[in-house]
Amino acid sequence: MEFLERRQGLVNDRLREVLSAVEPAALREQVEHVSLSGGKRVRPVVTVLACEAAGGDAEDAVDYGVGIELVHNASLVIDDIIDKSDLRRGTASAWTEYGHGPAIVASDGLLGEAFALFSQDPQATQVVAEAMVELGEGEATELAAMPTNEDEYMELARRKTGALFRAAAELGAIAADADPYTVEKLGEYAERVGVAFQIRDDVLDETADADDLGKPTGIDEAMERPSVVQVTELSAAEATERAEAESAAALDALAAVDADDSEAGQYLRDLARFVVVRER
Q: Could you say which cofactors this protein requires (predicted)?
C-alpha cells in the first residue's frame, strides 16, 4: 500500500497547492470544499500509474492527474445540482453549502484550473477536450434521450464515465512520451475500467446503504435515471457479471502493452478487479 499511498500523496499535495492559489478567497473556499472533502482519487492515480507503466516517472504525470481530478470534480458539482443531491462524499454538496450560483461558478473555476495544467501540451489539451465532449453528450443523453436497452446503456456509460477514465490513462501515457499504440491501449484499458465502475455505481445505488456509501441511494429510480438495473432489467448479480466482463476486457488491453511486469502495471490490474467489488 505504501507504493499507492505515495502516488495519492503526490496528487493530494499538488491539488492543495493548485487550489490554495485560487482567487478570490470566496472561490478558493468553494473549490477546496468540492475537491478536498474526500474522494478516492481513482482517475489521477490511473494517470500516474499509466505514466509509470509506459516507462515514465510518477512526478511527470502529477499535474495531469490533478487536472483530470479537477475536471471530474467540476462534473460532480453539476451532477449534484441535477440530482438535487444534498451530500457528496459524506459532506454537504456544493449547491447545498453555497447555493446554485456559487456552485456553478465553482465548477467553472475547477475547469479553468484544470486546463491551465493541460495547456503545457496541445496533445493533452486535445485528449481532455474530446473527453469533455463525450461527457457532455452522455449527460445530455441521460436527460433527454434515455437509453432503452443494454447497448444504448453501455454507450451512455462509455461517454458518461468511460471517456474521462480513458483521458486519465492517455494523459499518463502522454506524460511518459509513449508511442501512439501504447497511448491507445492504455486508454482502452481505462475506458473499460470506467464502464465497469459506472455499472458498479448503479448496482450500489440500488443495493447499498446510504450511510455506508456516503451519499443518498435510490437516486436512479427516483430520478427515472437510466441505470443498468432500470434499463436492462438485469438483477444486481447479473449486472455485476456485466461489469466483470468489462474488467476482463480491460485486462486484455493492458496485457497488449509492456506494462504487466511493472509494479505500476500490477496496480492497474488490481484496479480493474477492484472496481467490480468495491462497496463505496
A: Mg(2+)
Spatial neighbors of 106 by CB under 8 A, at least 6 apart, are: 27, 30, 31, 33, 34, 77, 94, 98
pLDDT band at 106 (very low <50, low <70, confident <90, very high): very high
Residue 108 CA, distance from chain mean position:
17
What domains sit in the chain, N to C, each tagged with a CATH number?
2-277 (1.10.600.10)
Q: State phi, psi for 103 to the nearest 5 degrees.
A: -65, -45
Q: At what angle do helices 25-35 and 58-83 cross, to 10 degrees?
A: 90
Kindly tell me the sign of the dihedral angle through the C-alpha atoms of 174, 179, 182, 184.
positive
Tell me: the pLDDT tens digits for 42-88? 999 999 999 999 999 999 999 999 999 999 999 999 999 988 888 88
Strands (E), the chain: 87-88, 91-92
Average pLDDT, the chain: 89
C-alpha–C-alpha distance, residues 152 and 145, integer Å: 10
Distance from C-alpha of 76 to C-alpha of 127, rounded to nearest angstrom: 20
Q: Using DSSP, how many helices (H) and how many strands (E) does the chain show? A: 15, 2
Closest CA to 215 of 70, 98, 79: 79
Phi, psi torsion values for 92, nearest 5 degrees: -65, 135
Q: Which of 159, 169, 160, 173 is CA-nearest to residue 190?
A: 169
Q: What is the pLDDT of residues 224-256, one digit of tens each?
A: 566 777 788 788 888 899 999 999 999 999 999
Q: Which residues of 64-73 are buried (b: 16+ CB within 10 A; e: fewer)?
A: bbbbbbbbbb
